[in-house]
Write a structure and sequence with these properties.
about 325 residues, alpha/beta, six-stranded parallel β-sheet, six-stranded antiparallel β-sheet
């Protein structure tokens, strides 16, 4: 997949591009349906399947406190590439660009710069100043400027509308199994392993890999999760606590993962955590022995979840390009 970080990097229009535009936060199954349509139509026309998106997310600029993102730009790029797209154009979004009219965006960006010959969008997409570029507008533009417009209808999974908003709600509620159904993969958080208090191994008997959690980001329900851990090209099982360590009277939000059958030094190294199932709420225990006993029970429950999800975990590890779960 060819990646363009701004429109200036596009030296010449693409070859007969079929284009879709959107924010695509989470790159969920509804988005994947759109990308599949783009790939099929581009192939039928011997053209270029093309995705146009924005970074940062427009709402992060226009309403900074109004959006908690499901995926980072890195995750978005990975998932769009997996969908088989030929070209991804990431337009830097700022308030100046937000003032672009829908008409100018179609003519100057989609037609003149990219060379669009066909457009595919989701049923509820709108863009441009005042969100004036809705599907009715795009269909009219297609009639005037000579490009077909294809609308992909809403996608449902088990009677749930697949949408980024719905997935955010599920993550907030700790409903990771439902979020996975809508995403088409487990909800994932990433980060570099930080040096913590080192209590997990020495005092409690369960060493942990710690990630800092930004409370401005999408934070899962506070509590304990059965987790798949992806580290240094291998997949492991684990049990994760997202919370504040109330037993030790701390206030900082962290994600602490005990990785099963693992004893490597990974401070400063990146890991990925697939949150599989919410096990329990975080609570304060009378002392370390009571906390350790609870963690032993959490490990047992997490291993049951991992065993029951063995096939799905194998698929997700293979999709990530890593070895089988351990």
């Amino acid at each position: 997949m060819k990646l363009f970080w701004n429109l200036k990097e596009i030296a010449a229009p693409f070859d007969r591009p079929c284009v879709t535009i959107g924010n695509f936060d989470g790159v969920h199954r509804g988005h994947q349906k759109i990308f599949s349509e783009v790939v099929q139509r581009a192939s039928a026309n011997h053209g270029t399947s093309t995705v146009v998106t924005f970074d940062p997310h427009p709402l992060q600029v226009l309403r900074p406190s109004g959006i908690k993102l499901i995926s980072t730009i890195e995750q978005k790029i990975e998932q769009i590439e997996k969908a088989g797209i030929d070209c991804l154009v990431i337009i830097p979004f700022n308030r100046e660009f937000a003032a672009t009219s829908a008409e100018n965006f179609v003519q100057q960006v989609l037609i003149d710069c990219i060379g669009m010959t066909e457009l595919v969008v989701g049923y509820d997409y709108a863009f441009g100043k005042g969100r004036s570029g809705d599907t009715a507008f795009l269909k009219e533009q297609g009639r005037q400027r000579g490009f077909p417009v294809n609308i992909v209808e809403a996608f449902y999974e088990n009677d749930m509308l697949v949408s980024s908003t719905r997935i955010r709600d599920l993550v907030h509620a700790g409903r990771m199994m439902d979020a996975r159904k809508l995403l088409g993969r487990p909800y994932q958080i990433r980060g570099q392993v930080q040096v913590g208090k080192k209590r997990g191994g020495k005092e409690i008997g369960f060493p942990t890999a710690n990630l800092q959690v930004n409370e401005e980001d999408l934070v899962p329900r506070i509590g304990v999760y059965a987790t798949q851990v992806i580290c240094e090209g291998k997949c492991y099982g684990g049990v994760l606590n997202v919370g504040y360590n109330p037993t030790f009277g701390e206030q900082r939000l962290v994600a602490e993962t005990h990785i099963f059958d693992f004893n490597k030094d990974i401070y400063g190294k990146p890991i990925k955590l697939n949150l599989l199932k919410f096990l329990r709420d975080e609570r304060k225990y009378p002392g370390i022995s009571e906390l350790a006993e609870q963690i032993r029970n959490d490990v047992i429950e997490a291993k049951k979840v991992l065993e029951a999800s063995q096939r799905e975990l194998l698929i997700s590890c293979t999709a990530e390009g890593h070895d089988e779960p351990r």
